[in-house]
Design a protein that fits this description.
Helix content of chain B: over 70%
Number of helices of chain B: 5
Distance between the termini of chain A: 29 Å
CATH class of the largest domain in chain A: Alpha Beta
Structural class of chain A: alpha/beta
Largest sheet of chain A: 5 strands, parallel
Shape of chain A: globular
Order of helices and strands of chain B: HHHHH
CATH topology of the largest domain in chain A: FAD/NAD(P)-binding domain
Number of strands of chain A: 24
CATH superfamily of the largest domain in chain A: FAD/NAD(P)-binding domain
Strand content of chain A: 15-25%
Number of helices of chain A: 9
Oligomer: heterodimer
Helix content of chain A: 25-40%
Chain lengths: 438, 130
Protein backbone atom coordinates (compact mmCIF):
# COMPACT_ATOMS: atom_id res chain seq x y z
CA UNK A 1 0.00 0.00 0.00
CA UNK A 2 1.45 3.39 -0.88
CA UNK A 3 2.09 6.10 1.66
CA UNK A 4 4.38 5.51 4.59
CA UNK A 5 2.35 7.93 6.70
CA UNK A 6 -0.53 5.51 6.81
CA UNK A 7 -1.19 3.28 9.71
CA UNK A 8 -3.48 0.28 9.69
CA UNK A 9 -6.41 -0.04 12.04
CA UNK A 10 -5.68 -1.87 15.23
CA UNK A 11 -8.18 -4.24 16.68
CA UNK A 12 -8.66 -2.27 19.87
CA UNK A 13 -9.29 0.91 17.88
CA UNK A 14 -11.93 -0.80 15.89
CA UNK A 15 -13.46 -2.19 19.06
CA UNK A 16 -13.42 1.30 20.60
CA UNK A 17 -15.21 2.73 17.62
CA UNK A 18 -17.63 -0.16 17.60
CA UNK A 19 -18.41 0.46 21.24
CA UNK A 20 -19.00 4.14 20.58
CA UNK A 21 -21.23 3.24 17.70
CA UNK A 22 -23.16 0.95 20.01
CA UNK A 23 -24.20 3.91 22.12
CA UNK A 24 -26.00 5.55 19.24
CA UNK A 25 -27.09 2.38 17.47
CA UNK A 26 -30.37 2.05 19.33
CA UNK A 27 -31.26 5.55 18.21
CA UNK A 28 -29.82 5.22 14.77
CA UNK A 29 -31.15 1.83 13.96
CA UNK A 30 -27.87 0.90 12.28
CA UNK A 31 -24.28 0.96 13.51
CA UNK A 32 -22.09 3.80 12.31
CA UNK A 33 -19.24 2.93 10.01
CA UNK A 34 -16.18 1.94 11.96
CA UNK A 35 -13.52 4.64 11.92
CA UNK A 36 -10.15 3.72 10.54
CA UNK A 37 -7.25 4.96 12.62
CA UNK A 38 -4.72 6.52 10.28
CA UNK A 39 -2.35 9.46 9.91
CA UNK A 40 -3.00 9.66 6.18
CA UNK A 41 -3.00 13.01 4.46
CA UNK A 42 -6.22 13.41 2.54
CA UNK A 43 -6.63 16.30 0.13
CA UNK A 44 -10.06 17.14 -1.20
CA UNK A 45 -9.93 19.43 -4.21
CA UNK A 46 -13.12 21.44 -4.35
CA UNK A 47 -15.38 22.78 -1.61
CA UNK A 48 -18.74 22.52 -3.34
CA UNK A 49 -21.41 19.91 -2.66
CA UNK A 50 -19.18 16.94 -3.51
CA UNK A 51 -16.08 18.20 -1.70
CA UNK A 52 -17.94 19.19 1.48
CA UNK A 53 -19.82 15.90 1.57
CA UNK A 54 -16.63 13.93 1.14
CA UNK A 55 -14.89 15.96 3.86
CA UNK A 56 -17.77 15.32 6.26
CA UNK A 57 -17.94 11.63 5.47
CA UNK A 58 -14.20 11.03 5.67
CA UNK A 59 -13.86 12.97 8.91
CA UNK A 60 -16.42 10.55 10.40
CA UNK A 61 -14.85 7.45 8.85
CA UNK A 62 -11.21 8.22 9.61
CA UNK A 63 -9.65 8.71 13.01
CA UNK A 64 -6.49 10.80 13.00
CA UNK A 65 -6.35 11.57 9.29
CA UNK A 66 -5.29 15.03 8.22
CA UNK A 67 -7.99 16.21 5.86
CA UNK A 68 -7.43 19.32 3.79
CA UNK A 69 -10.25 20.87 1.80
CA UNK A 70 -9.25 23.24 -1.01
CA UNK A 71 -11.88 25.63 -2.36
CA UNK A 72 -12.05 29.40 -2.66
CA UNK A 73 -15.73 30.21 -2.60
CA UNK A 74 -17.01 31.43 0.76
CA UNK A 75 -20.62 31.23 -0.38
CA UNK A 76 -22.22 27.86 -0.90
CA UNK A 77 -24.81 27.62 -3.66
CA UNK A 78 -27.71 25.23 -3.47
CA UNK A 79 -27.77 24.71 -7.21
CA UNK A 80 -30.82 22.41 -7.32
CA UNK A 81 -32.80 25.47 -6.21
CA UNK A 82 -31.73 27.70 -9.07
CA UNK A 83 -34.72 26.72 -11.22
CA UNK A 84 -37.00 27.64 -8.31
CA UNK A 85 -35.41 31.09 -8.19
CA UNK A 86 -35.52 31.45 -11.96
CA UNK A 87 -39.24 30.68 -12.02
CA UNK A 88 -40.05 33.17 -9.28
CA UNK A 89 -40.96 30.60 -6.65
CA UNK A 90 -38.06 31.13 -4.25
CA UNK A 91 -36.16 34.27 -3.28
CA UNK A 92 -32.49 34.11 -4.17
CA UNK A 93 -31.47 34.09 -0.50
CA UNK A 94 -32.82 30.57 -0.18
CA UNK A 95 -30.06 29.12 -2.36
CA UNK A 96 -27.08 30.90 -0.82
CA UNK A 97 -25.43 29.95 2.46
CA UNK A 98 -21.92 29.93 3.88
CA UNK A 99 -19.45 27.22 3.00
CA UNK A 100 -18.00 27.45 6.51
CA UNK A 101 -21.28 26.12 7.90
CA UNK A 102 -20.63 22.78 6.27
CA UNK A 103 -16.90 22.31 6.82
CA UNK A 104 -16.59 19.39 9.23
CA UNK A 105 -14.70 19.94 12.49
CA UNK A 106 -11.04 19.00 12.21
CA UNK A 107 -10.93 19.61 8.47
CA UNK A 108 -8.40 22.22 7.32
CA UNK A 109 -9.99 24.51 4.77
CA UNK A 110 -7.63 26.21 2.33
CA UNK A 111 -9.51 29.14 0.83
CA UNK A 112 -8.01 28.97 -2.62
CA UNK A 113 -8.65 27.09 -5.83
CA UNK A 114 -6.51 24.34 -7.25
CA UNK A 115 -3.87 25.70 -9.62
CA UNK A 116 -2.34 22.36 -10.59
CA UNK A 117 -2.55 18.66 -9.94
CA UNK A 118 0.74 16.76 -9.84
CA UNK A 119 -0.43 13.17 -9.47
CA UNK A 120 3.00 11.66 -10.09
CA UNK A 121 4.32 13.59 -7.07
CA UNK A 122 1.04 13.14 -5.16
CA UNK A 123 0.78 16.87 -4.75
CA UNK A 124 -1.80 19.60 -5.33
CA UNK A 125 -0.79 23.22 -5.79
CA UNK A 126 -3.32 25.88 -4.79
CA UNK A 127 -3.78 29.32 -6.30
CA UNK A 128 -2.50 30.91 -3.08
CA UNK A 129 0.88 29.27 -3.76
CA UNK A 130 0.58 26.60 -1.11
CA UNK A 131 1.25 23.01 -2.06
CA UNK A 132 -0.32 19.98 -0.45
CA UNK A 133 1.14 16.48 -0.50
CA UNK A 134 -1.34 13.69 -0.11
CA UNK A 135 -1.69 9.99 0.49
CA UNK A 136 -5.16 10.06 -1.01
CA UNK A 137 -6.82 12.67 -3.18
CA UNK A 138 -10.48 13.34 -3.85
CA UNK A 139 -11.12 15.42 -6.96
CA UNK A 140 -14.38 17.28 -6.50
CA UNK A 141 -13.76 20.55 -8.29
CA UNK A 142 -17.05 20.64 -10.13
CA UNK A 143 -17.10 21.82 -13.72
CA UNK A 144 -16.53 25.09 -15.51
CA UNK A 145 -19.06 26.89 -17.65
CA UNK A 146 -17.52 27.49 -21.07
CA UNK A 147 -19.43 30.60 -22.10
CA UNK A 148 -16.71 31.55 -24.57
CA UNK A 149 -17.49 28.51 -26.70
CA UNK A 150 -20.61 30.41 -27.78
CA UNK A 151 -19.49 33.28 -29.96
CA UNK A 152 -20.80 36.61 -28.73
CA UNK A 153 -21.92 35.23 -25.38
CA UNK A 154 -20.77 36.85 -22.19
CA UNK A 155 -22.28 36.03 -18.78
CA UNK A 156 -22.48 39.78 -18.20
CA UNK A 157 -25.29 39.82 -20.78
CA UNK A 158 -27.54 37.67 -18.60
CA UNK A 159 -30.47 39.70 -17.40
CA UNK A 160 -30.35 42.07 -20.37
CA UNK A 161 -31.87 42.07 -23.84
CA UNK A 162 -33.80 38.86 -23.31
CA UNK A 163 -30.77 36.74 -22.36
CA UNK A 164 -31.16 34.41 -19.41
CA UNK A 165 -29.36 31.47 -17.86
CA UNK A 166 -30.20 29.52 -14.77
CA UNK A 167 -26.64 28.18 -14.77
CA UNK A 168 -24.94 31.51 -14.06
CA UNK A 169 -25.06 31.29 -10.27
CA UNK A 170 -27.71 32.69 -7.94
CA UNK A 171 -27.52 36.10 -9.60
CA UNK A 172 -28.02 34.48 -12.99
CA UNK A 173 -31.06 32.61 -11.70
CA UNK A 174 -32.50 35.82 -10.28
CA UNK A 175 -31.76 37.70 -13.49
CA UNK A 176 -33.46 34.92 -15.44
CA UNK A 177 -36.65 35.48 -13.47
CA UNK A 178 -36.45 39.22 -14.16
CA UNK A 179 -36.06 38.63 -17.90
CA UNK A 180 -38.79 36.01 -17.89
CA UNK A 181 -41.21 38.28 -16.04
CA UNK A 182 -40.59 41.08 -18.49
CA UNK A 183 -40.98 38.74 -21.42
CA UNK A 184 -44.26 37.37 -20.10
CA UNK A 185 -45.70 40.85 -20.52
CA UNK A 186 -44.58 41.23 -24.11
CA UNK A 187 -44.57 37.71 -25.56
CA UNK A 188 -42.49 36.82 -28.60
CA UNK A 189 -40.11 33.96 -29.39
CA UNK A 190 -38.55 32.04 -26.51
CA UNK A 191 -35.56 29.84 -27.29
CA UNK A 192 -34.35 27.08 -24.97
CA UNK A 193 -31.83 24.34 -25.46
CA UNK A 194 -28.88 22.39 -24.14
CA UNK A 195 -25.18 22.16 -25.01
CA UNK A 196 -23.43 19.30 -26.80
CA UNK A 197 -21.21 18.51 -23.82
CA UNK A 198 -21.84 16.63 -20.62
CA UNK A 199 -23.79 18.94 -18.36
CA UNK A 200 -25.08 19.22 -14.85
CA UNK A 201 -28.78 18.64 -14.35
CA UNK A 202 -29.73 17.80 -17.90
CA UNK A 203 -33.36 18.24 -16.94
CA UNK A 204 -32.99 21.93 -16.10
CA UNK A 205 -33.34 23.26 -19.67
CA UNK A 206 -36.46 21.15 -20.14
CA UNK A 207 -37.85 22.45 -16.86
CA UNK A 208 -37.06 25.96 -18.07
CA UNK A 209 -39.12 25.53 -21.22
CA UNK A 210 -42.08 24.05 -19.36
CA UNK A 211 -41.96 26.57 -16.52
CA UNK A 212 -41.86 29.37 -19.04
CA UNK A 213 -44.92 27.89 -20.73
CA UNK A 214 -46.75 27.61 -17.40
CA UNK A 215 -45.89 31.14 -16.33
CA UNK A 216 -46.97 32.55 -19.68
CA UNK A 217 -50.29 30.73 -19.40
CA UNK A 218 -50.77 32.13 -15.90
CA UNK A 219 -50.06 35.61 -17.23
CA UNK A 220 -52.43 35.09 -20.15
CA UNK A 221 -49.69 35.84 -22.67
CA UNK A 222 -49.03 32.31 -23.95
CA UNK A 223 -51.03 33.06 -27.08
CA UNK A 224 -48.57 35.81 -28.01
CA UNK A 225 -45.52 33.56 -27.64
CA UNK A 226 -43.68 30.76 -29.37
CA UNK A 227 -41.48 28.40 -27.39
CA UNK A 228 -38.67 26.48 -29.08
CA UNK A 229 -36.31 23.88 -27.68
CA UNK A 230 -33.12 22.94 -29.52
CA UNK A 231 -30.91 19.98 -28.73
CA UNK A 232 -27.67 18.78 -30.35
CA UNK A 233 -28.86 15.20 -30.00
CA UNK A 234 -31.59 13.08 -31.48
CA UNK A 235 -33.61 12.97 -28.32
CA UNK A 236 -34.94 15.35 -25.69
CA UNK A 237 -33.67 13.26 -22.79
CA UNK A 238 -31.15 10.43 -22.82
CA UNK A 239 -33.43 8.04 -20.91
CA UNK A 240 -35.94 6.62 -23.39
CA UNK A 241 -39.14 6.61 -21.29
CA UNK A 242 -38.42 10.12 -20.03
CA UNK A 243 -37.79 11.26 -23.59
CA UNK A 244 -41.18 9.84 -24.60
CA UNK A 245 -42.90 11.60 -21.72
CA UNK A 246 -41.24 14.94 -22.48
CA UNK A 247 -42.31 14.59 -26.12
CA UNK A 248 -45.88 14.14 -24.90
CA UNK A 249 -45.62 17.16 -22.59
CA UNK A 250 -44.08 19.38 -25.27
CA UNK A 251 -46.75 18.36 -27.72
CA UNK A 252 -49.54 19.10 -25.25
CA UNK A 253 -48.05 22.51 -24.50
CA UNK A 254 -47.25 23.47 -28.05
CA UNK A 255 -43.51 23.65 -27.41
CA UNK A 256 -41.67 23.22 -30.71
CA UNK A 257 -38.40 21.33 -30.75
CA UNK A 258 -35.61 20.46 -33.13
CA UNK A 259 -32.84 17.86 -32.97
CA UNK A 260 -29.20 18.24 -34.02
CA UNK A 261 -29.10 21.96 -33.28
CA UNK A 262 -26.09 23.25 -31.36
CA UNK A 263 -25.96 26.86 -30.24
CA UNK A 264 -22.72 28.33 -31.61
CA UNK A 265 -23.23 32.09 -31.56
CA UNK A 266 -25.49 34.86 -30.43
CA UNK A 267 -25.85 38.44 -31.54
CA UNK A 268 -27.50 40.40 -28.73
CA UNK A 269 -27.82 43.46 -30.98
CA UNK A 270 -30.10 41.76 -33.48
CA UNK A 271 -31.33 39.16 -30.98
CA UNK A 272 -30.23 36.32 -33.21
CA UNK A 273 -29.01 32.90 -32.13
CA UNK A 274 -27.05 30.77 -34.57
CA UNK A 275 -27.19 26.99 -34.45
CA UNK A 276 -24.99 24.41 -36.10
CA UNK A 277 -27.22 21.89 -37.88
CA UNK A 278 -26.63 19.05 -40.35
CA UNK A 279 -27.88 21.46 -43.04
CA UNK A 280 -25.44 24.20 -42.09
CA UNK A 281 -25.73 27.24 -39.80
CA UNK A 282 -29.26 28.30 -38.95
CA UNK A 283 -30.15 31.72 -37.52
CA UNK A 284 -33.11 32.03 -35.16
CA UNK A 285 -34.45 35.35 -33.98
CA UNK A 286 -35.36 35.39 -30.31
CA UNK A 287 -36.99 37.66 -27.77
CA UNK A 288 -36.01 35.42 -24.86
CA UNK A 289 -32.96 33.16 -25.00
CA UNK A 290 -32.06 30.76 -22.22
CA UNK A 291 -28.36 29.97 -22.69
CA UNK A 292 -26.93 26.73 -21.31
CA UNK A 293 -23.16 26.89 -21.81
CA UNK A 294 -20.98 23.94 -22.74
CA UNK A 295 -19.37 22.45 -19.65
CA UNK A 296 -15.93 21.00 -19.06
CA UNK A 297 -13.59 20.01 -16.28
CA UNK A 298 -11.65 22.93 -14.76
CA UNK A 299 -8.38 23.80 -16.49
CA UNK A 300 -6.23 22.36 -13.70
CA UNK A 301 -7.92 18.99 -14.15
CA UNK A 302 -7.97 19.12 -17.95
CA UNK A 303 -4.27 19.85 -18.11
CA UNK A 304 -3.30 17.16 -15.64
CA UNK A 305 -2.64 13.46 -16.09
CA UNK A 306 -5.82 12.81 -14.12
CA UNK A 307 -8.05 13.49 -17.12
CA UNK A 308 -9.27 10.81 -19.46
CA UNK A 309 -6.69 10.39 -22.23
CA UNK A 310 -9.11 8.98 -24.78
CA UNK A 311 -12.77 8.16 -25.21
CA UNK A 312 -15.91 10.27 -24.86
CA UNK A 313 -14.82 12.02 -21.64
CA UNK A 314 -11.35 13.01 -22.88
CA UNK A 315 -12.30 16.05 -24.95
CA UNK A 316 -13.58 18.05 -21.99
CA UNK A 317 -11.01 16.69 -19.57
CA UNK A 318 -13.22 14.87 -17.06
CA UNK A 319 -11.36 12.86 -14.44
CA UNK A 320 -10.74 9.27 -15.44
CA UNK A 321 -12.30 6.93 -12.92
CA UNK A 322 -13.63 3.45 -12.80
CA UNK A 323 -17.36 4.14 -13.10
CA UNK A 324 -18.21 1.57 -10.43
CA UNK A 325 -15.61 2.33 -7.74
CA UNK A 326 -14.90 6.00 -8.65
CA UNK A 327 -11.20 5.23 -8.27
CA UNK A 328 -8.65 6.45 -10.79
CA UNK A 329 -7.28 3.48 -12.75
CA UNK A 330 -3.77 4.93 -13.19
CA UNK A 331 -3.45 6.72 -9.85
CA UNK A 332 -5.13 4.38 -7.37
CA UNK A 333 -4.92 6.89 -4.51
CA UNK A 334 -7.16 9.27 -6.47
CA UNK A 335 -10.95 9.26 -6.43
CA UNK A 336 -13.39 11.64 -8.11
CA UNK A 337 -16.89 12.67 -7.06
CA UNK A 338 -19.50 15.00 -8.48
CA UNK A 339 -19.59 16.94 -11.72
CA UNK A 340 -15.89 16.48 -12.50
CA UNK A 341 -16.01 12.68 -12.45
CA UNK A 342 -15.78 11.21 -15.91
CA UNK A 343 -18.74 8.90 -15.65
CA UNK A 344 -21.98 8.87 -17.64
CA UNK A 345 -24.92 10.90 -16.34
CA UNK A 346 -23.70 11.65 -12.80
CA UNK A 347 -23.82 15.43 -12.62
CA UNK A 348 -26.50 16.27 -10.09
CA UNK A 349 -26.67 16.69 -6.33
CA UNK A 350 -28.49 13.35 -6.24
CA UNK A 351 -25.46 11.81 -7.95
CA UNK A 352 -23.23 13.26 -5.25
CA UNK A 353 -25.49 11.81 -2.57
CA UNK A 354 -25.02 8.35 -4.06
CA UNK A 355 -21.40 8.69 -5.19
CA UNK A 356 -19.97 10.10 -1.96
CA UNK A 357 -20.66 7.04 0.24
CA UNK A 358 -19.16 4.82 -2.47
CA UNK A 359 -16.02 6.92 -2.97
CA UNK A 360 -15.57 7.40 0.78
CA UNK A 361 -15.94 3.68 1.52
CA UNK A 362 -13.55 2.77 -1.25
CA UNK A 363 -11.02 5.39 -0.20
CA UNK A 364 -11.10 4.04 3.35
CA UNK A 365 -10.71 0.52 1.99
CA UNK A 366 -7.74 1.71 -0.06
CA UNK A 367 -6.13 3.21 3.04
CA UNK A 368 -6.82 0.03 4.98
CA UNK A 369 -5.39 -2.07 2.20
CA UNK A 370 -8.57 -4.06 1.89
CA UNK A 371 -10.77 -4.76 -1.09
CA UNK A 372 -13.21 -2.22 -2.42
CA UNK A 373 -16.74 -3.49 -2.46
CA UNK A 374 -18.78 -0.29 -2.73
CA UNK A 375 -20.12 0.38 -6.20
CA UNK A 376 -21.93 3.29 -7.81
CA UNK A 377 -24.67 2.23 -10.22
CA UNK A 378 -24.98 5.59 -11.93
CA UNK A 379 -27.99 6.64 -9.88
CA UNK A 380 -29.11 10.16 -10.46
CA UNK A 381 -32.34 12.00 -10.00
CA UNK A 382 -34.16 14.86 -11.60
CA UNK A 383 -37.32 16.29 -10.09
CA UNK A 384 -38.58 17.33 -13.50
CA UNK A 385 -40.76 20.32 -12.78
CA UNK A 386 -43.49 20.62 -15.37
CA UNK A 387 -45.22 23.67 -13.91
CA UNK A 388 -45.04 25.48 -10.57
CA UNK A 389 -46.85 23.05 -8.27
CA UNK A 390 -46.23 19.84 -10.22
CA UNK A 391 -43.24 17.65 -11.01
CA UNK A 392 -42.15 14.16 -11.92
CA UNK A 393 -39.59 12.47 -9.72
CA UNK A 394 -37.38 10.90 -12.37
CA UNK A 395 -34.58 8.65 -11.09
CA UNK A 396 -32.40 6.37 -13.20
CA UNK A 397 -29.08 4.56 -13.38
CA UNK A 398 -26.20 4.10 -15.83
CA UNK A 399 -28.29 1.84 -18.04
CA UNK A 400 -31.13 4.32 -18.22
CA UNK A 401 -33.38 2.14 -16.09
CA UNK A 402 -35.89 4.01 -13.97
CA UNK A 403 -35.05 3.41 -10.30
CA UNK A 404 -37.79 5.03 -8.22
CA UNK A 405 -36.98 5.49 -4.54
CA UNK A 406 -40.67 5.59 -3.73
CA UNK A 407 -42.43 2.73 -5.49
CA UNK A 408 -45.81 4.38 -5.01
CA UNK A 409 -44.78 7.44 -7.03
CA UNK A 410 -45.02 6.94 -10.77
CA UNK A 411 -41.88 8.63 -12.13
CA UNK A 412 -43.59 9.53 -15.38
CA UNK A 413 -46.73 11.12 -14.01
CA UNK A 414 -46.98 14.76 -12.99
CA UNK A 415 -47.88 15.07 -9.35
CA UNK A 416 -47.98 17.61 -6.55
CA UNK A 417 -46.09 15.30 -4.15
CA UNK A 418 -42.78 15.37 -6.08
CA UNK A 419 -43.14 19.14 -6.23
CA UNK A 420 -43.54 19.26 -2.44
CA UNK A 421 -40.40 17.15 -2.17
CA UNK A 422 -38.54 19.60 -4.40
CA UNK A 423 -39.92 22.60 -2.53
CA UNK A 424 -39.61 21.37 1.04
CA UNK A 425 -37.74 18.08 1.37
CA UNK A 426 -34.74 17.97 -0.95
CA UNK A 427 -33.08 20.99 0.68
CA UNK A 428 -32.94 19.31 4.12
CA UNK A 429 -31.73 16.08 2.49
CA UNK A 430 -29.02 18.06 0.72
CA UNK A 431 -27.88 19.74 3.94
CA UNK A 432 -27.83 16.40 5.75
CA UNK A 433 -25.68 15.14 2.90
CA UNK A 434 -23.24 18.05 3.25
CA UNK A 435 -22.95 17.27 6.95
CA UNK A 436 -22.15 13.66 6.08
CA UNK A 437 -25.23 12.39 7.90
CA UNK A 438 -26.66 10.44 4.96
CA UNK B 1 -32.24 2.21 1.30
CA UNK B 2 -29.93 4.38 3.37
CA UNK B 3 -32.27 7.36 3.04
CA UNK B 4 -34.88 5.49 5.06
CA UNK B 5 -32.54 4.42 7.86
CA UNK B 6 -33.64 5.88 11.20
CA UNK B 7 -30.37 7.82 11.48
CA UNK B 8 -30.87 9.36 8.05
CA UNK B 9 -34.50 10.18 8.76
CA UNK B 10 -33.51 11.78 12.05
CA UNK B 11 -30.84 13.86 10.32
CA UNK B 12 -33.24 14.99 7.60
CA UNK B 13 -35.94 15.84 10.13
CA UNK B 14 -33.39 17.82 12.12
CA UNK B 15 -32.31 19.74 9.02
CA UNK B 16 -35.92 20.41 8.08
CA UNK B 17 -37.17 21.71 11.38
CA UNK B 18 -33.98 22.87 13.10
CA UNK B 19 -34.59 24.30 16.57
CA UNK B 20 -38.34 23.86 16.12
CA UNK B 21 -37.80 20.15 16.56
CA UNK B 22 -36.52 20.70 20.09
CA UNK B 23 -39.41 23.04 20.83
CA UNK B 24 -41.81 20.36 19.60
CA UNK B 25 -40.08 17.76 21.77
CA UNK B 26 -40.39 20.03 24.81
CA UNK B 27 -44.06 20.63 24.10
CA UNK B 28 -44.60 16.87 23.77
CA UNK B 29 -42.89 16.27 27.11
CA UNK B 30 -44.93 18.97 28.83
CA UNK B 31 -48.03 17.48 27.25
CA UNK B 32 -47.12 14.04 28.54
CA UNK B 33 -46.60 15.45 32.02
CA UNK B 34 -50.02 17.11 31.83
CA UNK B 35 -51.58 13.81 30.78
CA UNK B 36 -50.11 12.12 33.85
CA UNK B 37 -51.27 14.95 36.05
CA UNK B 38 -54.77 14.80 34.59
CA UNK B 39 -54.88 11.04 35.10
CA UNK B 40 -53.80 11.50 38.69
CA UNK B 41 -56.53 14.03 39.25
CA UNK B 42 -59.20 11.89 37.67
CA UNK B 43 -59.98 14.42 34.96
CA UNK B 44 -63.07 14.52 32.76
CA UNK B 45 -61.69 12.90 29.63
CA UNK B 46 -64.97 12.48 27.83
CA UNK B 47 -65.90 16.14 27.66
CA UNK B 48 -62.28 17.15 27.08
CA UNK B 49 -61.96 14.68 24.22
CA UNK B 50 -65.06 16.05 22.51
CA UNK B 51 -63.79 19.61 22.68
CA UNK B 52 -60.27 18.54 21.65
CA UNK B 53 -61.70 16.66 18.68
CA UNK B 54 -63.55 19.78 17.61
CA UNK B 55 -60.40 21.83 17.95
CA UNK B 56 -58.43 19.20 16.04
CA UNK B 57 -61.01 19.25 13.27
CA UNK B 58 -60.69 23.02 12.97
CA UNK B 59 -56.91 22.79 12.80
CA UNK B 60 -57.12 19.99 10.24
CA UNK B 61 -59.46 22.09 8.13
CA UNK B 62 -57.12 25.08 8.33
CA UNK B 63 -54.13 22.97 7.39
CA UNK B 64 -55.95 21.36 4.50
CA UNK B 65 -56.96 24.73 3.13
CA UNK B 66 -53.51 26.27 3.58
CA UNK B 67 -51.36 23.29 2.61
CA UNK B 68 -51.11 23.71 -1.18
CA UNK B 69 -50.31 27.41 -0.78
CA UNK B 70 -47.70 26.60 1.85
CA UNK B 71 -45.97 24.48 -0.79
CA UNK B 72 -46.06 27.26 -3.40
CA UNK B 73 -48.78 25.38 -5.26
CA UNK B 74 -52.56 25.47 -5.61
CA UNK B 75 -55.43 22.99 -5.40
CA UNK B 76 -55.37 22.68 -9.17
CA UNK B 77 -51.93 21.05 -8.84
CA UNK B 78 -53.22 18.10 -6.85
CA UNK B 79 -53.61 15.30 -9.36
CA UNK B 80 -54.52 11.72 -8.58
CA UNK B 81 -54.88 9.57 -5.51
CA UNK B 82 -51.27 10.02 -4.38
CA UNK B 83 -51.65 13.77 -4.05
CA UNK B 84 -55.09 13.75 -2.46
CA UNK B 85 -54.20 11.00 0.02
CA UNK B 86 -51.02 12.86 1.01
CA UNK B 87 -52.95 16.09 1.38
CA UNK B 88 -55.59 14.36 3.53
CA UNK B 89 -52.97 12.53 5.62
CA UNK B 90 -51.12 15.76 6.42
CA UNK B 91 -54.34 17.48 7.45
CA UNK B 92 -55.42 14.50 9.52
CA UNK B 93 -52.01 14.28 11.17
CA UNK B 94 -52.05 17.97 12.04
CA UNK B 95 -55.56 17.70 13.42
CA UNK B 96 -54.77 14.67 15.55
CA UNK B 97 -51.58 16.30 16.84
CA UNK B 98 -53.47 19.48 17.74
CA UNK B 99 -56.24 17.51 19.48
CA UNK B 100 -53.75 15.46 21.47
CA UNK B 101 -51.87 18.64 22.34
CA UNK B 102 -54.85 20.38 23.93
CA UNK B 103 -56.50 17.30 25.38
CA UNK B 104 -54.70 17.20 28.78
CA UNK B 105 -55.02 20.98 29.15
CA UNK B 106 -58.75 20.74 28.57
CA UNK B 107 -59.04 17.75 30.86
CA UNK B 108 -57.36 19.67 33.66
CA UNK B 109 -59.31 22.83 32.95
CA UNK B 110 -62.64 21.02 33.05
CA UNK B 111 -61.92 19.63 36.47
CA UNK B 112 -62.54 16.19 37.97
CA UNK B 113 -65.04 13.58 36.93
CA UNK B 114 -68.23 13.92 38.90
CA UNK B 115 -67.92 11.58 41.86
CA UNK B 116 -64.15 11.30 41.56
CA UNK B 117 -62.31 12.41 44.64
CA UNK B 118 -59.01 14.22 44.63
CA UNK B 119 -56.08 12.13 45.85
CA UNK B 120 -55.72 14.30 48.98
CA UNK B 121 -59.39 13.91 49.82
CA UNK B 122 -59.22 10.19 49.24
CA UNK B 123 -56.32 9.97 51.64
CA UNK B 124 -58.19 12.07 54.18
CA UNK B 125 -61.31 9.91 53.85
CA UNK B 126 -59.28 6.77 54.31
CA UNK B 127 -57.67 8.04 57.50
CA UNK B 128 -61.04 9.07 58.98
CA UNK B 129 -62.27 5.51 58.62
CA UNK B 130 -59.56 4.13 60.88
Amino acid sequence: MPGSALSHPRRRDLLRVAAAAGVVAPLAGAPRAQALRTRARIVIAGAGAAGLTMASKLSRMLDGARITLIGARAAHWYQPGFTMVASGVWPVGKVVSETATYVAPGVTWVRADVAAFEPEAKRVVATDGSSHDYDALVVATGCTLEWSRIEGMDPALIGRDGIASVYAGPEGAEATWRVLRRFMETGGVAVHGRPPTEMKCAGAPLKGAMLWDARAREAGTRGRAEIHYFTPFRNLFAVAPVHAKVLELFSARDIAFAYEHTLTAIDPGTKTATFRTPDGPKAVRYDYLHVVPPMAAPKAVRESALAWQSGPFAEDGWVEVNRDTLQHPRFPEVFAVGDVAGVPRGKTAASVKTQAPVAAANLVAFLAGSGMDATYNGYTSCPLITQPGRAMLVEFDYEGRLTPTFPFIDPLTEHWVPWVMKDKLLGPIYRAMLHGQI
Amino acid sequence: MELFAPRALAAITGEMFGALLWVAAMVALVDLALVLLALRRGAQWGAAARIAAGFGALVALGVLVALPGFTNAGFRDLAGALDWLTWAAVGLGAGVAAALGVLPLLALALGRRSGAAAPALQRGAASSLR
